Protein 1
Amino acid sequence: MDHLRGDAHGGRRDADAGLIYPFTAFTVLYCFLAVIVAWLLYRQIIRSPRGSEWTRLYAPARRGDA
């Protein structure tokens, strides 16, 4: 019954070829990196200045204000 294993062309399946471990490792790695990027973006958005802070820090002072 060994001739019935594999795909239609007689090749080996992914699990037999040993490709499942690298695929799983890369999938876990990229999922971990996606979580890190999402956390960094969230942290960057949370720490962004509010509207009043933005105008006070980055807008030039008007003549009458100084």
Note: The radius of gyration is 28 Å.
Protein 2
Amino acid sequence: MGTCHLRLGNYEPAVKAFEQAAKLMPYDRTVQRNLRLSQEMLQREKKRPAPTRAPEPVGEAV
């Protein structure tokens, strides 16, 4: 599940899934790597400014 969330850009659920996997398999390098990657991507996402919307058109279109 964590890998699916990671690939879709759903970083918070990915972190949670990899944290659970890390509890079950604490020495698995792939799980540890994916957990770190998910955490890094989540931090980047939080630092990124929110997208701005294009201004609404004023008046009628011709």
Note: The CA atoms of residues 1 and 17 lie 7 Å apart.
